[in-house]
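Reading group handout, session on sequence-to-structure problems. Before we discuss, look at one worked example. The prompt was deliberately terse, the way you'd type it at a terminal:

> structure Fucose isomerase

The input record follows.
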Amino acid sequence: MLKGISPVLSPDLLKALCEMGHSDRLVISDGNFPAQSIGRNGLVIRMDGHGVPEILAAVLSVFPLDTYVDKPVTLMEKVPGDEVETPVWDQFAKIVEEQDPRGADAIGHIERFQFYEEAKTAYLIIATSEKALYANVMLQKGVVIG
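And the output record:
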C-alpha cells in the first residue's frame, strides 16, 4: 500500500501507467468489450470485480490528460438506432471534471468500429467487469509539468 495512491491501482497497472509516454493511449473497457482480441498486440490488464467509473477515477488521479488535443477522453458512440441509455457517461463527465479543468469539454465520441480500430493501437487496455453498456473510455496521456 502507498499513501495517496488509490488501492484500486495495482502494482502492474501503476508500472504500465508509468511506462506510457506522451500521446500514448489506454482503454478502460466494459465487460462486453473484446479486450483480449483488440489488445492482442499490446498490454491487457484484467481488473475483474471493478467498474469503469471506479477505475477511471483512480487512473485520472495519477494520469495527466493530453493538453495538445481537444478531446483526450474518447467514448464509444452508440450504434445508430440503439435506444440504450448511457447514464455512465454522466459519471465519466463528473470524474473528468474533478481532474481536468476542461471538464466535459475534454470528452469526445467516435463511432463504434472506429473506436475498436483506435483501441488496437492503445498501449494498454484495462479490462473490467463493468455491466453498463457503452462504458468504454479511451484516454490519451499528456505530460507532467513541474
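Points for discussion. First: Helices lie at 11-19, 35-38, 52-60, 88-99, 112-119. Second: DSSP finds five helices and six strands in the chain.
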